[in-house]
Design goal:
alpha+beta, Structural Genomics Hypothetical 15.5 Kd Protein In mrcA-pckA Intergenic Region, Chain A, Alpha-Beta Plaits, 3 domains, nine-stranded mixed β-sheet, four-stranded antiparallel β-sheet, elongated, binds uracil
Length: about 230
């Protein structure tokens, strides 16, 4: 879709609109090989260059990150170190903003997706679409008997909520270790599901989101995903 040049550069995080006008005046921007002179020129982002370089992901960003412990999924700097601080500065200035697809707690690590495509956020976080998220948890007590059946039944009500949790799959890995597959993402859901049965979660890591795994990503690292990853 064609957009004004100054708006395009500002929305992709290059500079302010005022600076974009100065860049254009200085001859730093070209469109399909011709030096641009009008900030209002409607242009196809695919053929715009700045200082001879194609634009940075003009059609949107989709990233997989291995979220490290101790970082929050918030744009509010008052909440502490954020996952967004791990991204390049230019991406942090984009509009629409790059956001996480669902959140992980400060004390949860693992696979976190980020994008500036709001339709993807809605699709992948809506319980209607039943996208599977897999969490690995260690617990402070032995798993009670019958827990897998209880979680699978779709009848468990969390404290203060009327709607029971959707059926979830528990895979026992050891007396105090399990994998839980959810298709929804309520506030602190994994911790609250185990807590409802007398187990405190000591460590929590998300190991899968849909068909995506961590695939060797180290904590704090991210990689770009092909735009068509989720269709
Ligand atoms: N459930 C939790 O309790 N915490 C998370 O970060 C994700 C799911």
């Amino acid at each position: 879709m064609s957009r004004r040049l100054d708006q395009l550069l500002a929305n992709l995080g290059y500079c302010s609109r005022r600076e974009a006008r100065a860049w254009i005046e200085a001859g730093r921007v070209d469109v399909a090989g011709r030096v641009a002179d009008d900030p209002g020129q409607k242009s196809d982002p695919a053929v715009v260059r700045v200082d001879g370089e194609p634009l940075d992901h003009p059609a949107g960003l989709l990233l997989a990150m291995n979220k490290p412990l101790g970082r929050v999924c918030s744009h509010d700097g008052r909440e502490g170190p954020s996952v967004y601080d791990l991204l390049p500065e230019r991406w942090r200035r984009r509009n629409p903003q790059v956001t996480t697809i669902g959140r992980l707690d400060k004390d949860t690590s693992g696979l976190l997706l980020l994008t500036d495509r709001s339709e993807l956020v809605h699709r992948l976080t809506s319980p209607k679409h039943k996208v599977e998220k897999v969490y690995r948890a260690t617990l402070d007590a032995d798993l009670p008997a019958g827990l897998a059946e209880l979680f699978a039944a779709g009848t468990l009500k969390l404290k203060g909520e009327d709607d029971p949790c959707a059926p979830a799959v528990l895979r026992v890995l050891g007396p105090r270790e399990a994998e839980l597959t959810l298709t929804e993402g309520r506030y602190h859901q994994v911790r609250r599901m185990f807590a409802s049965q007398g187990c405190e979660v000591l460590t929590l890591q998300r190991v899968r989101f849909g068909s995506l795994g961590l695939d060797g990503l180290a904590p704090g690292q991210w990689r770009e995903l092909p735009p068509e990853t989720f269709g």
